[in-house]
Known about the structure:
By secondary structure, the chain is an alpha+beta fold. It is 30% helix and 22% strand.
Amino acid sequence: MKIFAVVIASLIAFSGIGHAADITAPVKEIMEATKSNWADNNSDWTDIFDASRLDHLYSRDFVARYQAAAQFPAVDDDGISPFDYDVIVNGQDACPLEDLAMAAAPVVDGVAEVTVRFRKSACSDAPDAKDYTTVRFLVVEEGGKPVIDDIVTENIETQARDSLKTTMALIAKGQ
Length: 175
């Protein structure tokens, strides 16, 4: 009976992202930074890809792709980011984020999808100002903790999903 209990405990421990870990934790940190970046509080811009965040919020594969893409910086103030837009709001302009909601789906094949919805243009007079933006964070477990493995945005015009890892691979190839 004791061996059976050990086997069950081992299966639970290796069945994907553990129940003790909050799979939304890395997403919450990124969304708090993004929310602060677009708030009307004149605070300094928080780089969601700075070295300290890359070290603990993202998977090894994501970090490798980011570092490869960073060899081709976009035109920006610091000259180190491969992006010339905010990858979370999927644009260069936004209002303070409103109606932010987050939901985590169950783990499937070692990946949990954390969906975040918010309004990024509520302060605008544009016809689509009240539309929601949806971002999907694919979270995996590495080193016993949840980390972001990809960020997927929905392109409203094409109805396609855009993977940030795919975008980074294209940037790294000079495309």
